[in-house]
Amino acid sequence: MAPQGSRAPLEFGGPLGAAALMLLLPATMFHLLLAARSGPARLLDLPPYLPRLEALWSPRALLLWFTWLGLQVAFYLLPARKMAEGQELKDKSRLRYPINGFQALVLTALLVGLGVLVGLPLGALTEMLLPLAFVATLTAFVFSLLLYLKALIAPASALAPGGNSGNPIYDFFLGRELNPRIGSFDFKYFCELRPGLIAWVLINLALLVQEAELRGSPSLAMWLVNGFQLLYVGDALWHEEAVLTTMDITHDGFGFMLAFGDLVWVPFTYSLQAQFLLYHPQPLELPMASALCLMNAVGFYIFRAANSQKNTFRKNPSDPRVADLETIPTATGRQLLVSGWWGMVRHPNYLGDLIMALAWSLPCGVSHLLPYFYLLYFTALLVHREARDEQQCLQKYGLAWHEYCRRVPYRIVPYVY
Ligand SMILES: NC(=O)C1=CN([C@@H]2O[C@H](COP(=O)(O)OP(=O)(O)OC[C@H]3O[C@@H](n4cnc5c(N)ncnc54)[C@H](OP(=O)(O)O)[C@@H]3O)[C@@H](O)[C@H]2O)C=CC1
Ligand SMILES: CC(C)CCC[C@@H](C)[C@H]1CC=C2C3=C(CC[C@@]21C)[C@@]1(C)CC[C@H](O)C[C@@H]1CC3
């Protein structure tokens, strides 16, 4: 039987776009890693030098990377404080997921703390970023190939709505199977939050430790970047269940895009500000630092309040915290919020996320564009993601979605966009 996705419109520029992204994403990541440690640290210049293979390939990095993944798998398999059910699938069944991501973060912190106490040179991790990113990239390619092959024997009902066009490059990139699992181990759910997000804050911490070793103490800017991003990662893992309703879990297959994005792109490019600060220390006075804390707090408040309001409403529309909000009925029986945060713009959570992204870059000063890469990339990602979500909501809710767009005309920034 032809999978339903074979008629789905192609995204990301089709096979050509997918092929270009598979080259461009790793190339951009290596460019950022090299630029951050170079003197001029220019985002838009060609890389100062091309690393030789010996600088990229290291058996120690390979061992470390697989130990890391093994450790996170072990934490995932520990008894969870809660099991959650995912959205209803095509065959009307629902998958179950362990909610123990925050526990994995705490256990990792304890283990790393213990390691440091017995002399683990955490700062030395910063010297291994290049070979680690290299093995992680190779892993993502091999892993995506295995996922692609696994999908060949999966039943049609297990395939994702997209990612089954019949073009191998496009399908390899987008991912064919929606929820690839072995037994109850869910690969996509595992990768979405744990190994990448936790590695991101661990790399940040290693950069902070290394800065302390080099300059006597970490700079205020390094503290801020570490603190802000730890809050973001801790929050994501604390609210792990919320990821079950994102398009990554409910709509996208598991292929190169998410395997590379989750496992490689997040830890090695999202830590760019801390990488930049290690090699290019920036002065930051207390009043400015306080203003940045306020900016991050405002962004976080909007992001968290908007996400929680929607999650509470989706779980139980009669919950007293959301029962008074105005809604639009839809033909599916579900309602759309049209007041509160979701009555202000159609993606208030993205607005908060973008304000935080700015607060993460400003501690790096304004002399270089490089630390603003995350803000630029993230704006493009969210604008594209918003357009994809819009298409999916239009399909789901039809006229009711048109009415929502009429009542709430702005997408992310009130009166601007
Ligand atoms: N740092 C990073 O790299 C990234 C961060 N993020 C963050 O992750 C979080 C999740 O984002 P994302 O998965 O894109 O999507 P959202 O959490 O914004 O969810 C979108 C869904 O919400 C529901 N919805 C939309 N409008 C309404 C409404 N008015 N009332 C009720 N429900 C509504 C629809 O699903 P339904 O109706 O089916 O419930 C829609 O598909 C965000 O905070 C985002 O900022 C996301 C991507 C990358
Ligand atoms: C670079 C590629 C083209 C795209 C890669 C995309 C991924 C990096 C992101 C897709 C959705 C993500 C989400 C998060 C991190 C980034 C990825 C994996 C969060 C976990 C970030 C924290 C939030 O609280 C929840 C997010 C869910 C989606």
Structure write-up:
The chain has 15 helices and six strands. The chain is mainly α and 417 residues long. A hairpin with a 2-residue loop joins strand 3 (181-182) and strand 4 (185-186). The longest helix is centred in the last third of the chain and has 30 residues, at 286-315. The two termini are 42 Å apart. It binds NADPH dihydro-nicotinamide-adenine-dinucleotide phosphate and ligand L3PRFG4B. The site of NADPH dihydro-nicotinamide-adenine-dinucleotide phosphate (NDP) has 20 residues, from helix 12, strand 6, helix 13 and helix 14. NADPH dihydro-nicotinamide-adenine-dinucleotide phosphate binds at residues 245-247, 303, 307, 310, 314, 334, 336-337, 342, 347, 349-350, 353, 385, 389, 392-393, 404. Keywords: Cholesterol biosynthesis, Cholesterol metabolism, Endoplasmic reticulum, Lipid biosynthesis, Lipid metabolism, Membrane, Oxidoreductase, Steroid biosynthesis, Steroid metabolism, Sterol biosynthesis, Sterol metabolism, Transmembrane, Transmembrane helix. It is a multi-pass membrane protein.
